[in-house]
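Let us work through a complete example step by step.
Step 1: write down the sequence.
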Amino acid sequence: MRPEAIKAAKARRNSSQGKALEDYKKMWELKMEYLARKEKLSKLAILVTLLAKKDPLSESEEAVKHKLLAEYF
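Step 2: predict the structure and record it as tokens.
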């Protein structure tokens, strides 16, 4: 027979595994949401830069500008 304290410690260890997995999944979802928002902000910063330029844009800059405008508006 094992002492009661060992049984209780083992029971706590086994029941916390599911909680740790849930915490990990939630953390992963938050990280993915953060990365998506960060990417959107970076694209918007590029768009603002292109819209603020007073000089004529090159063909590649025009293409990027139109792509970003179509994506967000």
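Step 3: interpret the result. The longest helix spans residues 4-52.
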